[in-house]
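thread: overnight batch results

M.L. [08:02]
morning all. the overnight job finished for the chain we discussed friday. pasting input first so we're all looking at the same thing
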Amino acid sequence: MLIRLRQALVVLLALLAVAVPAGILLLGRVDLGGFAAARASAALGREVRLASLRVTPGRWIGLQLEGGWLGNIDGGTAPAMAELGRLEAEVDLLSLLRGPVVVRRLSVDGLQVLLERAPGRRPNWRFGPAAPAERPEAPADRAWLPTLLETRVSHSELVFRTTGGKLLRSRIEAGQLTATGAEAPLRLEAAASYNGMALTLEATLGSIAALRQAGHPFPTDLHFKAGETRLDFSGGMTAPLDVDGAAGRLALRAPDPAAILAIAGTRAEWDASLELAGPFERRGDRWEWRDATGLLDGIPLTAALLRLVEGGGAGRMPSPPTSGWNGPTSTRCWGRSGRGVAATPTSRCSSTRRPTRRSRRSSPSAPWPMPGCAPPTCGWRSRCSPGGSRWTSWR
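M.L. [08:03]
and the structure it wrote out:
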C-alpha cells in the first residue's frame, strides 16, 4: 500500500513539474480580458470592458491591456467616464504578496477621461454608494496607492465639465512622472495643452509615501508656461487626487495676455501686460486669490480678493456712468467660466474724456480684468484706485 502511494506521489510530482512550467509559458498567450472585466465591474459597481488583457509571468510581471472602457455614473452626460487605447506595465511579483504594489514601468496611450458631477452634485470619480449627506466625509484612504517609478502618458485627454456645463480640456501629448523610490520626490514633465492653448508643465511633488498619508498636505510645486506667460504655484494639497484642498502662493506673469485669455476661453481685446502674485486657495468649487500684488501694464496693482465659483454661469458687468464720476462703488464682476466677487467694495474710480493716441482696446462685453471697477465707456480714459492700486486703460 505504501509502495503504491509512493509511486502515485512520484507520478503526481512529475506531472506538476511538467504542467507548471507549461502553464506559465502558456499564460502569456491566454486573454484574460473578459475575466478581469467581470471582476472589475463587480468591484466598482459600473460596467467595465477590456478588449484584451495578457499577463507575462516573471520576477517582474508584464501586463498588456488594450481597449479599456469604464462606464459613467448614472445621470452622467456621456456613456463612458474613461476609455483607454493601450496600457503596458511591469509589476514587482513580491509586492503583490506583501504590498504596496511596486510598478517599475507604466506606459499609457490614448486615455480619455471625463470628470463631471451628476444631479445631486455626486462626482463621477467616486465609486460605490454615496455617503450620507449628514455625515462629514473622512479623508479618502490612500494607503493602497502603488509606487510608480517610471510612468509615461501620451495622446491622452482629461475633460472636466463644470456644473455650468462648460468643458475644460487638458490634453497631454507626451508626459512622464518619475521617482527613484517610494520616499523620493516625484518629478513631472509634460508637453500639453489647455483649452487648445499649447503649454509645458514642470512639477516637483512630494513622494509616493507622502501621497499615501490622507489628510496631510501633499507638497506641490507646479510651473506652467505658454509662450512668455508663466503660472507658478508653490504649496500643498490635502486632496491631490481631486486637485483640491490647495493652499499656497500663486504667481502669474503675462507679458502678452493672449495665452491666458485663450486659456480662460475669452476673446477680449486686452493687450496690457500683467504680473500678479499672492496667497491662493481652492476649496471645492471656490477658488480664492487674496492680497495679490503686482503690475498691470507697469502700474502698481493690488487685489484684495479675486474669487471664482465654478458653475456660476456667464453674466455681464454693470453699465458704467456716461459722465465723469468719483465716488464709492461696489460692483460684481462676472467671468465666462465662473463668478467673481468684487475685490474691494469701496473702490474709487474717476473718468474724464480724453482723446486716445494709443491702439489699446477693451471690449465692454468681455470680462473686465479688474474686479471692483466698471469698464470705461468708448472714448473715455479711466483711472481706478481699488485698494490703493492704479490702472489706466484707453479705448
